[in-house]
Amino acid sequence: xxxxxxxxxxxxxxxxxxxxxxxxxxxxxxxxxxxxxxxxxxxxxxxxxxxxxxxxxxxxxxxxxxxxxxxxxxxxxxxxxxxxxxxxxxxxxxxxxxxxxxxxxxxxxxxxxxxxxxxxxxxxxxxxxxxx
Length: 132
Description:
Shape: globular
CATH topology: Thrombin, subunit H
Strand order of the largest sheet: 1-2-3-6-5-4
Radius of gyration: 17 Å
CATH class: Mainly Beta
Order of helices and strands: EEEEEE
Mean pLDDT: 83
Number of strands: 6
Number of helices: 0
């Protein structure tokens, strides 16, 4: 089960979808490593079609389940902890992966899997000018 999940948000060499650096207000509910219920409001650091990267004070266990709520849309999605990263200012980087596919959860269209900043379309700057 966990072998497929660590690649999506961690530093793995293969991703199933592109990561987008975007702050989205969310609330995370679950049980910490000590078995205590917690609820924490935070913003995402990055999102992708399969989950999000967040900073949390709560100490979580790899593979643990949490409920993520998108505060703008009020939608909820069960997630599991796919990645435990470094701690910054008392908060740990946590990679959360959706338990089931929800490609429209973030209301974002993600770049194709083979896209990179070196792609020709990434270098195109479109500007709208008005000389009036």
